[in-house]
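subagent[fold] <- orchestrator: predict structure for attached chain, return tokens only, no commentary.
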Amino acid sequence: MEHSLAGKTALVTGAASGIGKAVALLYAQHGANVLVTDLDAEKGQVVVEQIKGMDVQGHFVLADVGDPSECERLVNEVVNRYGKLDIACNNAGIGGELNMTADYSLEGWQKIININLNSVFFCMKYQLAQMVKQGKGTIVNMASILGQVGTPNSPGYVAAKHAVVGLTKTAALEYAQKGIRVNAVGPAYIDTPLLSVLPDEARQQLVAMHPIGRLGKAEEVAELVIWLSSEKASFVTGSYYPIDGGYLAH
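subagent[fold] -> orchestrator:
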């Protein structure tokens, strides 16, 4: 495999499982040193061990990205350890409460906005400051197909993911002439632990929404993230890339 990220340093949030894990492992396969962060230390450490088996450096940091001081600490940790931050993938997120808008709990709303939107802003705030010092860098934010369309019973999730797309575009415009690219990825329903709790009937309904006839794989999303993170995407910024098996083409 071509080592397109050799010598680069990457930070991945929510990297203990699912898409974040797939991204962290693929960064490592492409030659990057990876700082893995998550709230699940046990699984996060397993990912780091896999990374270390690829002749690159891996390190786990337990952090809650819903707390701005933790996001600042993460960036400092990367720079102290590796001297720079070339790539950041802001992936951490939750599905959150399922309820109609009028019935959505205030606590549920605050929680999902904090984890799915505020965390991306907090992380970007400190990542961008570091990348400006370096004169270059690239950020990939994990949005969703629900960053473009609505779905019933997930007002918080949909609002947060739409906002992540807007935040991505704004930052891309602000930092385009400073050597920093910022893009968002919009996966459809991916076969991850987040969906494993669903009963079979609900799963089949989800599958039916994807013209390709199946759910996506975390590794497929990671391939798109790697491309956006590499020099192959050097002219790409401020973009939103769906990876959705045809979901949005309906």
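orchestrator: received. Logging for downstream: Residues 9-242 form a domain with the Rossmann fold fold (CATH 3.40.50.720). The longest helix spans residues 106-134.
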